[in-house]
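User: Quick one: structure for sequence A, then sequence B.

Assistant: Sequence A:
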Amino acid sequence: MSVAPHLHLPPTDRVLSSRTGWTRAHWEATADRMLDALTPYATPGFAQYRLPGRGSWSGVVSDGLEGFARSFLLAACRIAGAGGAVDPALTERYAAGLAAGTDPSSGEAWPRLTDCSQQMVEAASVAVALHETRPWIWDRLDAGVQERVVDWFSGFVGGRTWDNNWRLFQVVSEQFLASVGAPYRASDIEEGLDRIEDWYVGDGWYTDGDGRNFDYYIGWAMHLYPLLWARIAGPGGDGGRAAAYRQRLGRFLEDYPYFFGADGSPVHQGRSLSYRFAALAPVWMGALAGCTPLAPGLTRRLASGTLRHFVERGVPDERGLLPLGWYDTFLPSTQPYSGPASPYWASKGFLGLLLPADHEVWTARELPLPVEESDTYTALPAPGWLLHGTRHDGIVRLVNHGSDHNPPAPGAADIEAGTDPDLGAGEDDPHYAKLAYTTATAPESAPHALARTIDGHLALLAPDGTPSRRRRIHPLRCEDRVAASWSAARLPGDDRAYRIATTSVLHGPWEVRVHRVEAPEGAVVREGGHAVAHTESPFASSGPDWALARTAEGLTSAVVALYGWDGGPDGAAVARDVESNAYGPHSAIPYLRSAPRPGGRSVHVSLVVLSRDRVRPEALRTAVRVRVDGDAVVLTFLDGRTVEA
């Protein structure tokens, strides 16, 4: 792919950057284009940027503040990274915005900071940006403006935030107050930092609040803000906490490159995906904090590859803006709190510009990503994920047996005693509930697709076709190339909860799924593979016990029945949809379907494939030998590998 003509970039350097061709100059040019593109949407005093697009639930003024705050972080990276040697108009715009935003008589004043308000999120970006640009902006504001800025931030002092990553917005903002000699409450900072200790689950992983909330917020919030706080607190001002934060981030980064495909795409999982290259924030922070285990050439290759991935696919767009979506505008993958400027949390992805131009991250030659060197398998027991990447097509797949974005589950003893295993769980979210996610696909997320919930899902179907949902995930196992979990399935008009336990076994590019299913009499079992999407309608084909969908670019998704399906002539097919997928307007999902079950327990085994290779599902039926004895399942592969699944 080539860069869109509306984005003027320097020539590539294939000596320094053999994989991407990108240098620091490409990053600076992209940042400059993004910042320049915002000016037509600024209010007269530059306190708000009111961008086109769907508004958030917080209202137009809050959305305007969001445009200022999040882009200020990008401007800060550019200003500080250049030692202030940027177009003076850039610093002047944001200095003017601070003055107007904190002036109640300006007509564009920011909303006051109140408990659990969206302003708290944005204040953290302003605090970080003010700290990083202190010599060029804060120190040059007149005393009256400084006092008004302090007064605005003071709404945090003694305030209440949501009990998740928001605790860190208070920590960072009040530390900024402390750094300028303004009143703050030390206990707010200490309690916020103490709280995230409750959410650290080991191996470099936090959960974002209570429950099993694993997604990109772990990198771009839970790891990021404690070390941004440490930068503001300064040497000796962190009470010894920063050493632990550096150690944890270093451990997290050992596995993090395995989330990225050879084309630079991150695995498409979790909420707030319109932040896109904010996923690079922990990578840059590792270098900034001196705790990264990644070689400098790998750090830049990963980061430049991801930014280039989006740039080549039209992000920023022809206006220079970041739309709500993944590539183009796609609202079904966003959340109600997302406004037109929300995507500018992507500014965190530019933190690398804070490193000087002669830093080894910018001067070392690029090194390949793990998936560019070999097939990879990575077990992550903390979130309950398996990652597997295939070198020949550059795809990374995430098998999900642990992240459901729900409050904590009842204990095992309580469930055994009859407590509803889904007690307190919310509705299933397509960005958490699927069995798998990848760097080449997205889940079907439009409301009409959610009603069917076919892709990446094992469902019981009621007589009227209503599918069961995967709401709360209960992990069972995650090691080597095997992971397992169970969930409770429900059908309309039936008060019972039916246990569905799934074990995933990785082998080469394949995922073999073993499902142990409890179901009422007459229920049908259905399983969907990966949804593939494109600007053109995918090719579809099916036969006895297999189904396949392939895009015009050769990305193929297939499912193959290995045991227990017995669906007859309707046992395998391809479902189509439109405007339901972030990767394109036309999508297709291969799926398997059983005959109505007699009730009780049954075992179903399937082989799931996503590949850029040519896939012959008829041959794959013979690739795995399955032996079932009651609940015991043994898989034997052609290379002799045997797995008790």
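Sequence B:
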Amino acid sequence: MLNFLYNLMLETGVPIQRWQKDLIKFKDIHKGKTCVLIGNGPSVNYHDLVQLEQLNLITFVFNRFHKVYDEIEFEPTYTLSIDPSFIDDFFEELLKNSKGTLFIGHHQYLSKMQGFNWLRVKDTEVFKFSKNPLKSISPGGSVVVAAIQLAYYMGCKDIYLYGIDHSFHIANNAENTNGKVQGEGNHFIKNYRSNKAWFPPDTAKIEESFITCLNLINGEGGKLINISRQSKLPTIPRMNFIDFIQSYKNG
């Protein structure tokens, strides 16, 4: 009975847990603002990152992005990770080296619950956009999709995607018995996975999730635009990266 009531409270978004109370302060914190979600695709280059940094926009980075901090000065607003396998492999590294406010999403509590903001991740067969992460966030097959929901909750109106190449290389005969695969070269960061195995993305689910995000954001008067140098992500409107930079420099 107690478990039933607890789960019911979670589904209503009533802030009964500490993580929910911590999350409330981010509600509409960037209302009406623009943000850039910076992926880790091979098309990312340091000069672009420097230009984005100079615009002083709200930025989200993901997972092991912190490996670039030895190469360039960059201060993201937020860092987000939601892949349970990735978190298992690099949890302590994320806590130690991430910059900006760190969010970690998982379907269960972690061994350590300090040093970051926890998000409840709830996956569904068909992606459902979560307007209220006090309930949960749906991964939609991609940490970037999760970030779109978080940015929406924070009040961001226009959301731009950079470094979302949406193209994945898997080494030949690299699949393990648990469904994981091997393969580097899918990120602009060298040795991104440190030769650890990973679960290949469900590209069809990711694409469907992005379409759902696009329809919701456009329907509420916002923008979801892909400014990646190279990208195979369909449907999402494209904008030239240099045009984007110039529009904010001149704006």
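Helices lie at 2-12, 18-24, 46-54, 84-97, 143-153, 203-219, 241-249. The beta strands are 34-38, 58-62, 78-81, 101-106, 117-120, 158-162, 223-226.

User: Thanks, that's what I needed.
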